[in-house]
Amino acid sequence: MSLADSIGRVDKGGAWGQFESEETDRTFLDSEESHVSALVAAIRTYKKGTHLKFVDLGGATGRIAEQVLRAVGNEYDISATVLDIDRRKLKEHPVISFTQHDARQPFPDSYDVVCARYLLHYNSYREQQTICNNIAAALTSHGHAFLIDTIPPDENERKRWNEVCEAMTRMKGSNEKFWSLEEEIITMMSAAGLSLATRVPDDLVPYSAQDFWKARYDLTAEQTRNLDTLLECKPVVGSVPILEFTRTSRAG
Ligand SMILES: C[S@@+](CC[C@H](N)C(=O)[O-])C[C@H]1O[C@@H](n2cnc3c(N)ncnc32)[C@H](O)[C@@H]1O
User: Fold this and answer.
1) Ligand 1 within 6 A of 88 CB?
2) CB 130: neighbour CB atoms within 10 A?
3) The domain that contains 63 carries what CATH number?
4) Which of 83, 159, 186, 187 is deepest in the core (most CB within 10 A)?
5) What is the pLDDT of residues 69-118, one digit of tens each?
6) What is the domain range of residue 39?
7) pTM over the 0.90 mark
């Protein structure tokens, strides 16, 4: 059993990043450009030619790392690393180093730019704090850390997301919450010693994750019925702000 299987929270077939269904993955594809732009802008705050270490936590098949390298690989001496818990997503790559790693464990190196995109909510609320602490511990003194995740807009919506998440991941009975609100993420990072430096508001129309979840997970007919009941046939909504953290607060 792989490390990922053992925590029972990976998606079907490890297919993330291969985009087998254009419809369900469009939301995530559409958002890549603005997310990569934010990472590139942070990299460009460094002097040209600098040696920089970039890591994508839960970076799956490396799509974001590849785009970052395409954008600024000629301007900087960048070592790019993808750390992911799911061994099936790792690959041989001429430039990017893919390593199996659980973000709940201290990271193998320090990094100037850390990206964690759609990673946090795979982990319980308590685990998210550990991940934030690990990010802070691995961030160089002038480093930039990006948390980009689907965030429920309020407590009520979060409650429904948690219920769905439990149903989806067959973790019924768990009292842990998975989806953090934006202020909770900021508080976790602050407890880890990092402050919000910039916030790029959501560039996406709030989307319905209902069809996405149905497509992504192997649901039995009963689980599908339960999901519909949970959601009361009302789509859940979320937003995806880009949250950038540094050691010194620059937010107004
Ligand atoms: C929804 S995918 C996002 C992939 C990629 N970051 C992107 O934005 O396209 C979540 C990824 O996080 C990984 N993951 C979940 N929990 C993890 C953990 N504790 N440590 C490392 N990777 C984790 C999963 O294996 C999966 O590849």
Assistant:
1) no
2) 18
3) 3.40.50.150
4) 83
5) 999 999 999 999 999 998 888 889 999 999 999 999 999 999 999 999 98
6) 3-156+180-210+239-246
7) no
